[in-house]
Design a protein that fits this description.
The chain is α+β, with helices and mostly antiparallel strands. It has one domain (33-222): 2-Layer Sandwich (Alpha-Beta Plaits), CATH 3.30.70.1230. The protein is 44% helix and 28% strand. The chain is built from eight helices and eight strands. Helix 3 (61-81) runs antiparallel to helix 4 (107-122). The longest helix is centred in the first third of the chain and has 25 residues, at 2-26. The radius of gyration is 22 Å and the shape is globular.
């Protein structure tokens, strides 16, 4: 009987809370995330550790903090070296973009975006030495990159602009098609930098009539 009464009380509280939320939603809502309304084209990148869930599952919280710190701070350092703006991390993924690529004629900015990813991969042995020195296992990671429309937004809890839009979404999706320790670029990015040598590695279905080609990048392609 006690458990039945508790269940009825819980249901009543849930419904009451929903009614309160519904009332708030029907009224003007406080702005937590504000969009500028400005949309520009940028080169967007995501770097993600391969099999990170399996790696961190066996780590203590203290060791996991060291793991995340070594990887994310090392990658952020390299990204900033090439003029990237760091947006945020989601777990062990880092999202960043290159502001100078808003000018499609700025070839050096796109060159920096490609070289940045290659330098990250080339620096993996240094990152892994830090991991080993900290008693952690070495890692592999993958980098995805695409170019296109990006919208910026400000959050009341952050001083850094967040970015949204189809380019960010596609960059996240094609990351899963990327082989460990390589870079994958989307077709829109490829159209800008295709003077380099690239190999088409797959097509990603985006729900349209045609699939979206993606391309692999290696240091041999770049040099």
């Amino acid at each position: 009987m006690a458990s039945e009464s508790y269940g009825m009380l819980k249901e009543s509280t849930f419904e009451s809370r929903f009614q309160g939320i519904a009332t708030q939603l029907q009224n003007p809502i406080d702005t937590v995330i504000s969009f500028s309304g400005i949309c520009k084209d940028y080169c967007v990148c995501i770097v993600d550790v391969v099999s990170s869930t399996k790696i961190t599952a066996s780590l203590t919280p203290a060791k996991a903090c060291v793991y995340y710190s070594i990887f994310l701070n090392s990658i952020a350092l390299i990204a900033k070296e090439f003029g990237a703006s760091i947006v945020k991390n989601v777990g062990d993924s880092l999202l960043y973009y290159f502001p100078q690529t808003s000018e499609i004629s700025n070839r050096s900015a796109f060159n920096d975006a490609i070289e940045c990813g290659l330098q990250m991969i080339k620096s993996r042995h240094i990152v892994n030495k830090k991991m080993l020195d900290a008693g952690l296992q070495p890692i592999s990671f993958r980098i995805s990159c695409d170019y296109g429309a990006v919208m910026k937004a400000k959050s009341e809890s952050s001083t850094v602009d967040d970015i949204f839009g189809p380019t960010v979404n596609m960059c996240a999706k094609i990351n899963s098609k990327t082989m460990p320790n390589t870079i994958t670029i989307g077709s829109d990015m490829y159209q800008v930098v295709k003077s380099y040598k690239f190999k088409q590695i797959a097509e990603y279905s985006v729900g349209f009539k045609q699939s979206y080609p993606i391309y692999g990048v290696t240091e041999d392609d770049y040099t």
